[in-house]
Structure formats: C-alpha cells, structure tokens
Amino acid sequence: MPYTYEHPHPAVTVDGVVFGYDEADLKVLLIQREQTPYRSRWALPGGFVGIDEGLEDAARRELEEETGITRLYLEQLYTFGAPKRDPRERIISVAYYALVKLADHAVRAASDAKNVAWFPVADFPSLAFDHEEILDVALRRLKAKIRYEPIGFELLPEKFPLSELQRLYETIIEQPLDKRNFRKKILSMGLLADTEEIQQDVAHRAARLYRFDEPAYRRLKKAGFNFEL
Amino acid sequence: MPYTYEHPHPAVTVDGVVFGYDEADLKVLLIQREQTPYRSRWALPGGFVGIDEGLEDAARRELEEETGITRLYLEQLYTFGAPKRDPRERIISVAYYALVKLADHAVRAASDAKNVAWFPVADFPSLAFDHEEILDVALRRLKAKIRYEPIGFELLPEKFPLSELQRLYETIIEQPLDKRNFRKKILSMGLLADTEEIQQDVAHRAARLYRFDEPAYRRLKKAGFNFEL
DNA sequence: TCAAAAGTGTTAACCATACACCCATGC
DNA sequence: GCATGGGTGTATGGTTAACACTTTTGA
User: Fold this and answer.
1) Is the dihedral angle over the CA atoms A167, A169, A173, A177 positive or is it negative?
2) What digits encode the pLDDT tens for the residues A93-131?
C-alpha cells in the first residue's frame, strides 16, 4: 500500500477547462468541491494521473468520470507547478482545455449526482486553488487560437447557420464583425459544406445550415492553406 | 530519508531545448549522458524538479548547472508524460525552450567538464528518451512564434546589421525573403534603434548596426500594435 | 579594379474594409 | 402588414509582392 521513494516526489494531476457555447454565451464547466480544502468552492474538473496512464488519457478519463462528457476536442494548455498552489502537498497540474458542443452535453452534466454546472466565462464564481489563473490562460489561448485554427466549429452543433458562427466569433474575440465580409471570407475558404437543409421552427426566414468540411480542411492544409479569422 | 506516499507518484523533471544561432545555422545545445540508460547518447539538458522549487526555477537552475548559461529567454513548451518514456520509472517532463545569444555562450558550454556541444538543428545525433520528439515540438513552436512575436532578437548579439536579422528569419522559417521588403517592413515597425555604429573588420561596405528597442516595443504593444513577420 | 555585400523606390495585384437595401417567413 | 433576421455587391484605400541597380569598402 505505501509507495516509497528515495527522493520526494510531487503529485501530478490533470485539470480541464471545458468550454461550451450557447446562443448567448461562452461557458465553462465547473464542479463544486465536496472536500477540503476549498470545500464547496467551485473548481475545474480534474484529478490525479494514474501511474501508468498517459496525461491526455487521464484528462479524458477525469472529464468523463466527473461530467459524463466523452467526445471532445482536447488540447494540452499549460503546466502549473507553483510550490504552494495546493495547501496539502506539492501538486503539479497539467492543464488541458476542451471544446464541446454544448447542446449535446448540457443536460447530462447538469443532471449528474455531483454539483456540476456551466457558467458564463464573463461571470463565474470564485474558484479553488489557482484555477482562476488556469481559466484565464485557457481563455487567452482560445481567443488567440480561434483566429488561426478552425476550432470554432467544435463549439457548435453539427449543422449551423452562418449567423451563429459569426456570433460565436464575436463572442469569443469580443468584437463585432461585418456580416457581409464575414460571409464572404468564410465561404471563400471552402471549408463549409452546404447541408441543403434550413433552420426549422424559427419565426422568420430560415437560414441555410452548413457543416464544417473536415476532409476539405485537411486537403487545403496539406496544400499550404492557412486558416485565418 | 525515504519518502512514502499512499499512492504512487511519478517523478517530475524539466528539460530544456536551448537554441542558439550563428551566421550559418540554428543550433541546439546537447549534453552527452554519462549514465545509463542511454549512456553516452546525446540528450537535452534537464533534471529533477526540487520538491519546493517552481518549474521555471528548476529549468533555469538545471540549465545553469549543466551548461553555465545564465541569462536567457525561457518559455514553457509542453509537458511530456507518456508512461514508458523513461525505462526506469514513470517520469513526467515539463519541457522549456530557451533562446540565447550564441556568441556570448559558445565557449563556456564547450569548455565545461561535461560533454556539452552545439549541434545544427538540421543535423544532430540520435537522442536519448523521447528527446527528438521534444526537439521537434520546440522547433515547430519557434518557427510559428518567431512570426508573430519579436523573439528573434534573443538569438542575435545586442547589435546587429539588418542582413543578419534577415538571414536569421530565413533560416528559421526556411524560406527566402525579399531584401527590400524585409527592410521596409521591419524598419517601419519602429522596433529597431540605429546604434550609429557600423560593422568592423568586414571585407566590404560595412553595414549599420541596429538594436532591438525593447521600451518602444512595450509602448507599441500596449497601444495595440501586433508584430508580424 | 574587382568582389562582396549595403542600401534604396516604384508599380501592380490583391485584400481588407466600409457600407445599405431587399427578401423570405411566421405571426 | 409587420417584425425578424437572411442574404447579397461594390468601391476605396491600404498592404503585400515583385523586381534591379548603384554605392561603399577592403583586398
């Protein structure tokens, strides 16, 4: 049961910053802690890395265990290791950030036994440990990355109208975009496939639905194409 | 002496990818291992993180201990934690990359007791552990980052002619640049201060020497300026 | 006087921006 | 018929890209 080493070893955890988006807001998934320290504070989902477990594997496992979310875009963010970041012992945390299609996951997370909830990134409670710093780094990464990698689609449903894509971008980069220029640019890239479907049950003219054309993106990328804004 | 934990803990190390540049090549600093495993193989400098030591502190300490290099640009790169990356025990490595002004450091590293040497990144020996992968990630990061952050100057001497800066960029991004356009662009940014000095001991017309104007950069950045290429 | 690199401007193509109205639909 | 958002084109200014010759210096 006890594990002994000649030199002291830190503990290693993974923490996940899970972003979701609904028509109004960019949101982040938080869990309310049940144990000390920071009991009842909200925190990023995460946990210890198994001794024979890869880092990304650990991140996926923790997210699935704690939130039920299973298929998501996941990328390593940064490693946080300030000596006193956890009051119990030295814990080094490898942080990941994830993008999920909120519509598909909102219910499961909310109905879980644990206290799990989505908070708007513009308005969230005080967090445990250094998790506010981690969230801040994740947000900055997302803002920067969404401009030069087509990852925005990971936050939208499979099929979406252009206006929703535009709103997503406007929300994340925090500035308005010109509708005509946005459409011109994004359509001219050849990354969107017209699904030939339109919105249902809207109280106005229904918009065409597009989907992200992954194979086309791969082809273009190989040919030297660079996504931008 | 022995340290005991209820659950198994991985060891945590830092490894450093130190880049330097001379008029011909982008180079990386390697150390020849004296112990098993991978005895006598070349490897990235690095070592264990002290239990009360910050990650970046550990990286700086290791680089100083192993190579004598003390003032450098240092940034966290990525964390590598595949379960079998070290044959002895589970070791998670937080990798950093560093940029140094080679001219100032070439001698010290080479004259150290340990077997330390600079290798061109285009032609280096087989490396220990997963260090080739780490180097590869570092190179890609450098190539990407040098285009949108003015970090190239960290690789040049304090004072340099424009042609040297251009050669540096051409070397790192691996494509030729037009001389007139390069000068126009870089000078129009207002980041270079004319030192009013010129090259000495050259067998042709001596070039003006510039230096990177750090305060000017900070001012511009605050005003929303974005360095690019 | 030759070799080697420094230094310098103009033009054309392209791209980003700004901007306003009509259309389709459901209520 | 009205409210709501969908969908569309053009003109201008700025930015990038292509391109070649003269100057300076030391050997």
Assistant:
1) negative
2) 999 999 999 877 765 665 556 799 999 999 999 999 999
Whether residues A83 and B53 touch (CB distance < 8 A) is answered with yes
What does each C-alpha distance from B2 to A8, A56, A135, A185, B93 come to in angstroms? Answer: 8, 30, 36, 62, 22
Our CA-based measurement puts residue B83 at a distance from the nearest CA of chain A, in whole angstroms, of: 5
Residue carrying structure tokens 């750090």? B214
- Short-list B85, B64, B66, CA closest to B74: B64
Partners of residue A79 in chain B, C-beta under 8 Å: 55, 76, 79, 94
Closest-CA residue to A121 (of A60, A66, A173, A158): A173
Size of interface A-B (CB pairs under 8 A): 94
- Tens digit of pLDDT for each residue in A169-225? 999 999 999 999 999 999 999 999 999 999 998 999 999 999 999 999 999 999 989
Rounded CA-CA distance A133/B67 in Å is: 33
Q: What is the pairing mode between strands A91-99 and A11-21?
A: parallel
Residue A221, phi then psi, degrees to nearest 5? -60, -45
Using one digit for the tens of pLDDT, what is the confidence trace for A146-181?
Answer: 999 999 999 999 999 999 999 999 999 999 999 999
**Residue B223 burial class via C-beta count within 10 angstroms: exposed 0-12, middle 13-18, buried 19 and up:** exposed
Residues of A at the B interface (Cβ-Cβ below 8 Å)? Answer: 1-12, 48-49, 51-55, 76, 78-79, 81-83, 90, 92, 94
Nearest-angstrom CA–CA distance, B156 and B189: 18
Residue B45, strand partner residues? none
Distance B73 CA to D14 C1' (A): 35
**Contacts with B80 (C-beta within 8 Å, 6 or more apart), sequence order:** B15, B92, B93, B95, B130, B133, B134
pLDDT tens per residue across span B48-84: 999 999 999 999 999 999 888 888 999 999 999 999 9
Element containing residue A110 per DSSP (H, E): helix A102-111
Interface of B with A (CB under 8 A): 1-12, 48-49, 51-55, 76, 78-79, 81-83, 90, 92, 94
Give the three-state DSSP class for B58. helix
With a CB cutoff of 8 Å and minimum separation 6, the contacts of A80 are: A92, A93, A95, A130, A133, A134
- Give A20's DSSP letter: E
Q: Who's near A74: CB < 8 A, 6+ residues apart?
A: A16, A56, A59, A60, A63, A96, A97, A98
